[in-house]
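In response to the reviewer comment on reproducibility (Comment 2.3), we provide here a single inverse folding case reported in full, input and output, so that an independent group could reproduce the run without further information from us. The structure tokens appear first.
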């Protein structure tokens, strides 16, 4: 359908999982891509396999590297129309509760899952204002709406992503910028293999999710594609769950 024909889209966390699935879907719809990830080998291989894509290694916890991604988009394609801020990490397979949560883990999770989104948004909005607007999609989580014991860093960060999303949506809607967030549930990716790969974790997920299964990365990518496209032109400041009905319980 070429929904993103000639649009310039930036995707963080693009080398695997949801980010990789989004890169493939955006490319299918005609987008020109700037891909970013900490995994340089996988990121370069993905960019080389797509018709119009460049890759840059990026540690999203560093504000100057987030800004450099936008500079790359402008230098390569002349503009930035779409951003999918997707990079993130988990707290680990079975982290401790709040009282025993390591301070260094807190700093790392907040830096990569929350501060990075702020850094990216600042650079992306500044660029989009030059060309009359654009669409930004942030990866939040069902943990951005509810709490899970033992993962205070992740829960706090994802709640923060939801707040940033709404703030940017309110601040820049009049300038043609839309900013929305996705709340994935239990999705089959490398990041969730420690939980969903274990029999106990899989059984728990199947009981908790009305759909009775984990989601696939491509299903989240399709939602990101829709939010990025003109079909979602009146959707702004929204948090859209893709969780098989988990939050509906």
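Designed residues, in position order:
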């Amino acid at each position: 359908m070429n929904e993103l024909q000639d649009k310039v889209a930036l995707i963080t966390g693009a080398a695997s999982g949801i980010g990789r699935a989004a890169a493939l879907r955006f490319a299918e719809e005609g987008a020109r891509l700037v891909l970013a990830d900490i995994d340089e080998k996988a990121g370069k291989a993905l960019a080389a396999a797509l018709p119009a894509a460049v890759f840059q290694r990026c540690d999203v916890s560093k504000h100057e590297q987030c800004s450099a991604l936008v500079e790359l988009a402008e230098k390569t394609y002349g503009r930035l129309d779409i951003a999918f801020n997707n990079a993130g990490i988990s707290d680990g397979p079975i982290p401790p509760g709040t009282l025993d949560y390591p301070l260094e883990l807190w700093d790392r999770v907040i830096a990569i899952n929350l501060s990075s989104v702020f850094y990216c948004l600042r650079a992306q909005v500044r660029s989009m204002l030059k060309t009359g607007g654009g669409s930004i999609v942030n990866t939040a989580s069902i943990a951005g709406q509810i709490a899970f014991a033992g993962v205070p860093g992740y829960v706090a960060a994802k709640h923060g992503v939801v707040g940033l999303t709404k703030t940017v949506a309110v601040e820049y809607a009049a300038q043609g910028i839309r900013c929305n967030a996705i709340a994935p549930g239990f999705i089959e990716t490398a990041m969730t293999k420690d939980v969903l790969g274990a029999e106990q974790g899989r059984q728990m997920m199947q009981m908790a999710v009305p759909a009775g299964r984990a989601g696939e990365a491509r299903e989240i990518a399709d939602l990101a594609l829709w939010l990025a496209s003109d079909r979602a032109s009146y959707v702004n400041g929204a948090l859209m769950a893709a969780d098989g009905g988990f939050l509906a319980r």
